[in-house]
Amino acid sequence: MVSAPDSHEPRRVVVAPPPSHPGLSATVLDVECAEDEDVVWLWTETSGGRFVSGYRIVPRVIAR
Questions:
Q1: Per-residue DSSP letters for 12-52?
Q2: Long-range contacts of 36-41 (CB under 8 A, 24+ apart)
Q3: Does residue 45 contact residue 21 with C-beta atoms inside 8 Å?
Q4: Using a CB cutoff of 8 Å and minimum separation of 24, what contacts does 2-7 make?
Q5: pLDDT per residue over 23-61, tens digit each?
């Protein structure tokens, strides 16, 4: 988990989606981000399935 140093704004933990096959392991388990941020998961595709191998934190888009 990634922590924000010396931050007083509310944070939340976003859990990564599971791999597509039980034999695969994700390299990222969860990410801590601010309430006004979202996580975009980066996937690695293999012949055995896919798994989360990274992430990007982006501004949260609010639907109207």
A1: EEEEPPPPSSTT---S--EEEEETTEEEEEEEEEETTEEEE
A2: 36/60, 38/14, 39/14, 41/16, 41/17
A3: no
A4: 2/31, 2/32, 3/32, 4/32, 4/34, 7/34
A5: 998 889 999 999 999 999 999 999 999 999 999 999 998
